[in-house]
Structures are given as C-alpha cells and as structure tokens.
Design brief:
The structure is a homodimer of 208-residue chains.
Chain A (H helix, E strand, L loop, with lengths): L12 H20 L7 H8 L3 H7 L3 H27 L4 H17 L2 H10 L7 H20 L9 H21 L4 H20 L7
Chain A binds a DNA duplex (30 and 30 nucleotides) through helix 1, helix 2 and helix 3.
Chain lengths: 208, 208
DNA sequence: ATATAATCCAAGTAATTACTCGGAAAACTC
DNA sequence: GAGTTTTCCGAGTAATTACTTGGATTATAT
C-alpha cells in the first residue's frame, strides 16, 4: 500500500487554492469517467495547475483519492451524527426511517463519485473514514434491536447486527446510486427502512 | 465498451488447451493480485503461451475477463437452478435457507476471484451472466413472499422484491468473501436466510 | 504429397503512465 | 529590501501498457 497522506499541507492562501483545485478536479473527473481514466496528469490539467504542483502536495495518485474520500466522508459523517442525535428521542420505527433517509440523502448529490470510489477503487472501502461510517450503521441496528425487541429475539446478536448493517449499507448505496426521480427514491428509501425494521425486530412496523 | 466476445473459438485440441490455459491463467492471477495488476502479457506468460496467441483468440484484455466471468457464472447458475428445483417442494422457510446456502456455497471456492471481478471491475456487474443471476434472486424473493404471505403484505411488491434481492445478493457476496471457518460461515448463512425470511414475510420463521 | 488452414510466437511499436528535475516567480520575515 | 521559504511549472524520463507484425510450425483435407 502506498502512502495515502498528503506529503505537505498548504500554508498560504494561494497554495490552499491549488490543493483544493486538485481535489475538486479529481472529483470532477470521477463524475464523468471511470477510475481507470483518472490520471495524475489529467487531474493537474483539470485543476489548472502544473503536474509538478500536484506532486508538491501529494506523494502519489492514491493520496489524492484518499483526500477526496476523506472530504466526502466527513460530510456524510456530520450528516449521520446529526441524524443520530435527532433520532435519539424517536420511537424505533421513525428513528430507522429517519436515519435511512438521511444516509441516502447524504450520498445522492455525489452519487457518481461515490459509486466509482466505493465500487471500483480497491483501497477505498478499507479507508478509516469508510470503515467508521459502516461501524456506525452496525451500532444503529444493534440499538433498534434492543429498543424494540421482537416477539422472538435473534439467536446471534452480534452476527445478526453485522449482517443487517451490511445489507443496509449496500442497499443504501444501491438506492442512492439509482437514476430515478427523487419521489421514487424517497419511496424506495422508506421501503428499505421498513425492511430493515422487519429484519431487526421480526415484525412489520405497522403491525399490531 | 470494447468487444467482449472471443474473436475466434479454437477448433483443434491444441488450441483449445491454449484457450483454456489463458482463461485459467487470468483466474490464477486474480487470485493473488488486484485487477490493476492483470495485464495481457502477464496472462500469456502465466498461461505458458506467447502474447500473440492470446490475441489470436481474444480481441482485448476485457474479452478474456468476460470469458472467465462466463465460465464462473455458468457454474453458479447450474448450482442455483438445481437448488431451485430442489427447493420447489419445500416449505418457504426451508426453501430460503436451502437457496441461500447453495448461493454462498457456489461462490466460496473462488471467492478471491469473485471479489475482484464483482467489486473492482467496472463492466463485470453489467455482464449478462451476472445480471441474469441477480434476476433469479429477485424471482426467489417474490416467490417466498407470495407463498408465505405475512400478516401484513408489503405495499410495493416489485420495489420490495427488488430491495430484498439487492440486500440478499450483496450479503451473499459478503458472507462468501469472509475469511472465516466454514462452520462460522454456515452459521452466518443460516442467519442471513432468517433475516431474508423476516424481510419477505414480516415475521420470524420460527415464530408461531 | 501437396495445398490449405489453423496455431503459434518473440521481437517490436506507439501510446500512456506516474513521477522527477532544475529552476523561476511570488510571498512572507526581519 | 535582502534573505528565506513557499509555491509553481513544463519539459523530460523510465517503465509499463495493450496490441501488431511477419513469418515459422503444425495439423487437416484431398
């Protein structure tokens, strides 16, 4: 694995602009092409800086991608933490619906970038920012299961929570990546929350 | 998209061996390295044939990968069809458990290859063989839902079936990819089947 | 046996890649 | 304003890539 940290943080306003332009350019390129087409020379060109300027701040191509992922994920994390605290006062079913909605919502704007990063770039799913966000989803499903224990509890609490969070995570991605109207996406998101609740609790949220 | 069909099928035994050696070599390389490291020259070298021999049968690198995917997926499809017919006489819950077990089982042997192909190679998830197998999973979840209608039916049958199959598909992959004992994998697989049943039917398979 | 078709291949090519070099220009420090 | 640090960059490089060429070798057909 190559070094994924920027080799130098910009210290002046001018270079901070270059640094940001490089990261933004990488995102812009991923919006329109595959990861395969993402080259350092193209990033620099798109960013309007010389290729040597890119290597002034990043040790290699992967570090640029890692920085982009970090930026995207902090937005997602902020969103999720906020949603989590909002949901803390809710009943289990509205809480799950709310969290699911926010999770999908925090991905849709940049869905093309997320799709390439999370589904094509080998090292991205292993990045701390991504791993931590997935862990938060596992915590959520644990919490729902405890708060609203079903008629029959699940026999393997940890494993089931892990499975539920894996399924939820992947389905959130799929729903966010879909190219449908926002109305349709909202419907699918609600159904996804319902299915998650069914898994965790063992009965439908609208059942007696 | 490049042409994914082999440019020429081998007609003699000698060339059939070369053809197979090329596909096998690609699989062998993917077992140990990323897709990025899969090059035509390396494939030919691993296969013990000249690079020009590879291009005698395949128009490009992607066609080799597509042929490998086709071979891997026919084995999965055969497995699934057999499992499907076996499950046709069963009650819904044993049927789901059986199908899930077979799905995971048909991936584990080549999990390293499947992981790279399905999670890193952009065009593989769109290949007909893969799309068709996923469609079969959607049909399964539909069937379970109808056969064992829950206390409260799902409000959006098609969308819910799609969501369930997406979640099941991804979870099957995750469970198959895990590096755990076969005993642990069997436990996880059963729990996955249970969660799927909960989603589709709205109650636990062991509940009254 | 001869002609035809299938199979093989090592060396080579053109393009692309990630990344470096050597130094100029601009911005801070005192 | 002299000196120091930061920022910038385009030309260049070494390595790697997918793929071609031109022909040799082997099998099949008649």
């Amino acid at each position: 694995m190559p070094d994924l940290k920027p080799k130098k943080r910009p210290k002046q306003a001018r270079s901070r602009a270059s640094f940001d332009a490089i990261v933004d350019a990488a995102a812009r390129l991923l919006r329109e092409r595959d990861y395969e087409a993402l080259t350092t020379n193209r990033i620099a060109e798109q960013a309007g800086v010389g290729i040597a300027t890119l290597y002034e701040f990043f040790p290699n191509k992967e570090a640029v991608v890692a920085e982009l992922v970090a930026r995207l994920m902090t937005r997602v994390e902020t969103n999720m933490e906020q949603a989590f605290s909002e949901a803390s006062g809710m009943e289990p079913w509205p809480a799950v619906a709310h969290m699911t909605r926010r999770a999908v919502g925090s991905l849709v704007d940049e869905r093309d970038v997320f799709r390439v990063l999370l589904r094509q770039v080998p090292f991205v799913p292993m990045l701390p920012a991504v791993v931590e966000t997935r862990a938060a989803l596992a915590a959520l499903s644990q919490r729902v299961r405890i708060h609203a224990a079903g008629a029959l509890d699940l026999p393997m609490p940890e494993e089931d929570a892990w499975l539920i969070s894996e399924m939820l995570y992947n389905a959130i991605l799929e729903v966010a990546f879909l190219d449908v109207s926002e109305r349709k996406r909202a419907e699918l998101t609600k159904e996804l929350a319902r299915l998650t609740y069914r898994m965790a609790v063992g009965r439908d949220p609208e059942a007696g």
